[in-house]
Prior knowledge:
mainly alpha
Amino acid sequence: MRCPNCGTLVRDGAGVCPACHATLEATAAHAPGEVTWCESCGAAIPVGEDTCPTCGMPVGGVFEEVFEEAPPQSDDMSTLVSAIPPDPSETPDDLHTIEERPRRLRLLLLAACAALVLVGGATLFITRPWDPEAYTIHATTDADTSMEGFPGTVTHLSSQDRIEDEVWQGYLGDVNGFLDGFYQRMGEMSLEAEVLYDSLSSLSSKGDMASVAGRSMAVAKLRDELIQTSTLATRLVLPDTKLDERRDKLLVLSTYLRGELDILEGAWTAASSEGNVDAASIAARIALQRASAGRDFSEWHDLFSNAYEM
Length: 310
């Protein structure tokens, strides 16, 4: 029979046209001579009609086709190939997998090669086979233990505050003499500080700015001397605990005396920065009032005197 959709000759009993995939369930089979076929659309035209009932084209020349007996065919339609490409959505999953398999294999090989290069490079960087001594932990040369050229004993570090060499050498050998001298010198400093404190009240009545500058320098010198001697006492390595306790008491005394000298230095420095004696007196008085927010000069002096007499 012939497909009514495309006119292709189709085996009798077929349900689908192999060319256009049209359904042939309602197509009837006609014996040769009963119908003719439209040359335009392939539709069946009854004998005697001049036009095609489907497309309306004139029959032109009526023809009859001679059908030969075709050899019997099996029901297997696998040999029929459609001229219309299949729908991609109807493609089996296995076919996609087969097509993508070479691409995935190439990507897997590239990833494996990159990982091999990375691991190999890291291994070479860590082990360094070209440098056998890269991880040597033992000494490659013998140490010089002959003590040749030994520079001597270091008494201080370059980054530390350094006491003058003559002061250090003068007291280094006689610890008792140093402690006695430290005690006596602090008593003298306290007396000098008391005199300098009393002279602050007579600035406006007598004196000049030259004497003010001289007394300011005297206070600064006393304070520096006390700091140096206290530092030296702190660094001394004493041979027994009794001397250590005595040194601690002297350091307490130096703290009290330092309080006196700090207040005096602030007052005399403020006074020396002025242009006349009257202004210097006022500046010194203001400096003393500010210092009295903590312990004033008299309190520090009483603490030192009581501890010194004991």
